[in-house]
Amino acid sequence: MDQHARTQPATLTVTAGQGGLRLGVRTIAQNWPLMLVLVGTSTAYGLRNGDGDTSSTLVRTGVVLVAAFAVSIAYYVIYGLSSITLTRDELVVSRAGFRQRLPRDQVAEIVRGTVDRGNGLGADSATMTFIVTTEGERFVGLPTLQWHKSALEELADALDVRIRTVKDREEEERLTPGWIKHIFAMTGGVVMIMIVGFLVWWAVFTWQEARLTNAEETAQQEFVTSVEPELTTTRFPHVDEGIDDRPVELLSVSAHAEQASEVDLRSSIRLRGTDAELPASEVLDLLDLQCAASPPGAEVSLAAVSYESNEDFGYDRVAEHECGADRTELEQWLAWAGENPAGAELGARDVSQGLGYDGETIPLEVNIQTPDTEDATFDAAVEYVCAYPETEDLTIHIRDEDLIRSLHHVRCETL
Prior knowledge:
The protein is of the alpha+beta class. The chain folds into 2 domains: 3-185, Roll (PH-domain like); 207-414, no CATH class. The protein is built from 10 helices and 16 strands. The chain is elongated and about 105 Å long. It starts with 9 loop residues before the first strand and ends in a 7-residue tail after the last strand.
């Protein structure tokens, strides 16, 4: 068996240790004013662009700095595990899981560089130390600050080679790896690539957002153009009613699109009048009108009818229907409510017929909002809703308008 195929017994092992970690911490401590400037600049930029309040902007900046600090510490910790092992036959340099091997008799000398390869922000100068082969070529270049001088001297003694300083700038340039010699150009290139990549991403993002916005606006316009002409008093008697000559915004629609060809519309028709309840047939026809008005490339997912029946602002009666849901329970409730109108003293009420995550129709939800927290008011609300003959098919919630008191999932059958 080839004996060189197996790991040779070590005669000497030296490690980088955590000197680099201590150096990194000292460098950060030395440059804390610069970090404060970066935090201040980032915060000002975020506030100027409306990216949130001061606290949230500071948090985001802090997260970035902590992440950068964590990456730096991780680098120093991982590099601190680097080692140089000298066996009877070879020199093995292990760094970040990678190994470089050189026959022991081909190690000529250890040469210390003098050129600072740092960016001027370090706590000490960042020179290189090179292990040179008998052919005068660099075997490895080591950051001097991350290897103890005594460890390299011990290695030189074991190899029986000398440690010297580079003769001149020409020799150091020849021994220095190309990526280190051009570190600032490479860094600038990487930064430029990142900037160009960001600009390309931003251009694509802006273009996509513009497409989606255009699709949303087009769908909204087409929906309004389709529905508004149908809102006539001939078909819907309460369209032209109002209170105290206040203007009525009949139709509103919102749009959201993840793709330009799939726009989700949610619409609402708002009416005012003096009747206690809007006739069930009128509510259902208004819901049908909205759900049937999906323009090309868009779909109306939710339709609503709001009806204000007293002199206070706000909508006392709201009916919501997710288009596609079975609205049998909604029809039954509206018919019953028309025959059993609730007085203004019970406050606002909304009913909603929706779909679950599985696409199945969920029970009709009835929410009553009372004007106060009095027991008599809550008792009257419970009595009213529990008079409905099919309460087991309802999800009932009662609360006051200031959210002080509430009854969730009222079970009429247990009362």
